[in-house]
């Protein structure tokens, strides 16, 4: 299985069928947001990956790992990093089948405190790893490691001279299962939103509908100032349509967001934790 990234590396996977990865954002994809956190701990830099408890996916869409940088260190640092990941398909009887396994790191861009380019070859964050794996209508489990190359030469060579950091693990939940089993708040309205308070995302849930119309969302702060605008594409099943609104970019506080779907507009409030 060949995975190509438009940086400096070619990945060698466990299998021999073709797939590609690229840095450009692909429409109609399953987005898995991962945060690359760099912070200070006991006068030393620490590096880790953080993630959500679960990610919603739908079948027949490509998978994109979107790597966001959160640099909380007071130190100036240039570092060269990579990712390793494995994807397991989960069967209803609990059997796990490895369907993707990276044997050498996916090279991600060098970083430093001011987040500027380190060299002409590097890319800026967020960094998208586009993996053209065909997801089936089932659930998956992902295990991912962050690695730090010892030198720039090791990074360019994409070799095994690196330090590995603790592994993270998270599920990919197929939206059909979610639409059937989601423990969403009860409401007589056709529109409900959750969770509230929220950390990274809000689910906009339309019941009793099979029309998968795009949704226009505008977020305002508590002073009525526009913060951001979003066009969301939902996933439908079992007479419901779900949309994911990313709120990770807004500071903590209370917000209003205007939701327009077709000719109907509603306003909701949210507390960002």
Automatic annotation (TrEMBL):
| InterPro entries, per the entry | Secre_tail
Sorted keywords for this record are: Signal
Specify the domain of life of the species encoding this protein.
Bacteria
Q: Does the keyword Signal apply?
A: yes
Signal sequence, renumbered to the chain: 1-21
Q: Where does the Secretion system C-terminal sorting domain start and stop, copy by copy?
A: 194-271
| Protein's name according to its UniProt entry | T9SS type A sorting domain-containing protein
The upper taxonomy is: Bacteria, Pseudomonadati, Bacteroidota, Flavobacteriia, Flavobacteriales
């Amino acid at each position: 299985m060949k995975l190509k990234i438009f940086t400096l590396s070619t990945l060698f996977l466990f299998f021999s069928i073709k797939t590609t990865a690229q840095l450009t954002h692909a429409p109609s994809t399953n987005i898995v947001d991962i945060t690359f956190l760099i912070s200070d701990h006991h006068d030393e830099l620490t590096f880790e990956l953080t993630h959500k408890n679960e990610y919603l996916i739908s079948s027949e869409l490509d998978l994109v790992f979107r790597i966001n940088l959160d640099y909380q260190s007071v130190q100036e640092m240039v570092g060269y990093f990579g990712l390793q990941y494995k994807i397991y398909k989960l069967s209803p009887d609990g059997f796990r089948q490895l369907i993707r396994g990276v044997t050498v790191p996916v090279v991600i861009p060098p970083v430093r405190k001011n987040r500027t380019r380190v060299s002409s070859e590097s890319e800026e964050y967020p960094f998208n790893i586009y993996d053209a794996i065909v997801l089936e209508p089932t659930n998956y489990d992902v295990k991912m490691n962050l690695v730090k190359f010892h030198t720039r030469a090791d990074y360019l060579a994409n070799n095994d001279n690196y330090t590995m950091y603790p592994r993270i693990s998270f599920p990919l939940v197929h939206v059909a299962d979610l639409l059937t089993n989601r423990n969403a708040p009860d409401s007589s309205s056709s529109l409900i939103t959750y969770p509230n308070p929220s950390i990274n995302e809000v689910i906009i849930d339309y019941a009793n509908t099979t029309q998968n119309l795009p949704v226009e969302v505008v977020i305002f702060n508590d002073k009525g100032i526009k913060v951001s605008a979003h066009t969301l594409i939902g996933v439908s099943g079992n007479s419901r349509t779900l949309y994911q609104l990313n709120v990770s970019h807004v500071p903590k506080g209370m917000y209003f967001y205007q939701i327009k779907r077709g000719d109907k507009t509603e306003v909701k409030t949210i507390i960002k934790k």
